[in-house]
Write a structure and sequence with these properties.
single chain; about 190 residues; mainly alpha; two-stranded antiparallel ribbon; 3 helices; 2 strands; about 80% helix; rod-shaped; Coiled-coil domain-containing protein 33; CCD33
């Protein structure tokens, strides 16, 4: 990596820091360690592949420059006879075209790997979001279940009070009166008659 350009090194550091940051966030959640390690390894492998492909592309571009310079020199030399010169020029042009095709393929591969990395990061964010929302949904369901039980219990108490109100009133016993607070279940209090 000594010959890497600063932007390639910056990309590597960003990718590795993303992997480390994700690792820190994931360590506090309950995830399958094997899946987390698989994501980390995939991200690290892609980062290394991208750097390697960029380095290879730079080498090919340098070779292209050398071939172009050589081609220009060959064209300027008038001492060689035309048959050899034409054959060498065609060979160099063919090499140049092949080299340019290789460079284009490498750039396409780098772009594909970067897109893949972005997709994997997005998937990881979705998994983290799902993991954080899951406990909140369970807590909400528990509260809703408790609220339903309280309402059912209150309804039962009201029904029993209505059924028993005739007998209690005749005997002079205290009766129950329900008072409902603003946002919670009602509270029943005993009031003397």
């Amino acid at each position: 990596m000594r010959a890497c350009c600063p932007s390639a090194l910056g990309l590597t550091h960003r990718l590795l820091s993303v992997g480390t940051d994700v690792g820190r966030r994931l360590s506090s959640e309950h995830w399958d360690p094997q899946e987390i390690n698989s994501y980390r390894q995939a991200i690290q492998t892609m980062a290394e592949d991208i750097l390697s492909l960029r380095k290879h592309a730079r080498v090919l571009e340098a070779e292209n420059r050398m071939l172009r310079n050589h081609l220009i020199q060959e064209e300027m030399e008038e001492e060689q006879d035309n048959a050899d010169k034409t054959q060498k020029l065609m060979s160099m042009r063919q090499k140049l075209l092949l080299s340019e095709l290789d460079t284009k393929k490498l750039r396409d591969t780098v772009q594909h790997l970067q897109n893949e990395l972005i997709r994997k990061n997005d998937r990881e964010k979705e998994l983290l979001l799902y993991q954080t929302q899951q406990p909140q949904a369970a807590l909400l369901k528990r509260h809703q279940d408790k609220l339903q039980k309280m309402k059912a219990l209150e309804e039962t108490v009201r029904h029993q009070e209505k059924a028993g109100a005739g007998g209690k009133a005749a005997r002079g016993r205290p009766r129950r009166e329900c008072v409902e607070p603003p946002a919670q279940a009602s509270l029943c209090t005993l009031l003397p008659r």
